[in-house]
Amino acid sequence: MARDTEVLMDVRRNHHGRIGVATVVLWLMALVAAVSGCGLTDGPPQLADVTEVQRPELIGAWSDAQDGGVTLNDDGTFSATKLKGKPVEGAGVKMLGEDLMEGSGKWESSDAGSGPRVDLMFSGGGALAFRVKAQDGAKVLTNRIGDGGTSVLKKKSAPKS
To answer: How many CA atoms are closer than 13 Å to the CA of 8, on its beta-carbon side?
Structure first.
């Protein structure tokens, strides 16, 4: 009987050992998938620095995934609808909700030492700045929004002449 008990204990030890190894392997696979971004759809955007941008590259309609955005016109004016961001508030910024605005005014591009950017100055007061970055080889406009996330605007078209 003692021999049967020893065999049973040995089987349990080996059985639990295999489950332990399998569990560790599954956890390691999950960790590798998480670190590599495999299966993530809502992770932060992968953005690269841009060293320079030419004004003609900026002219046109830029929008986010929810159809909010801004149109930068050749004459230095802009119009924004459902634009996400944390503006310097002013009478020209019409807030539609938290971090959501619309308005129009003048725009200019500059390089404030930390890379190219686009500054929006709303008619009647208020301002919002975007950094020019690269995503998947294309230039994008980005800014931080209140929840710690990043708003990314992709160029849709050049304005009609």
So the answer is: 5
pTM across the whole model? 0.70
**For the segment 99-115, what is each residue's pLDDT rounded down to a tens digit?**
899 999 999 999 877 88
In this structure, the number of other CB atoms found within 10 A of the CB of residue 26 comes to: 10
Instruction: Name the one residue in this structure whose structure tokens are 């190894």.
Output: 21
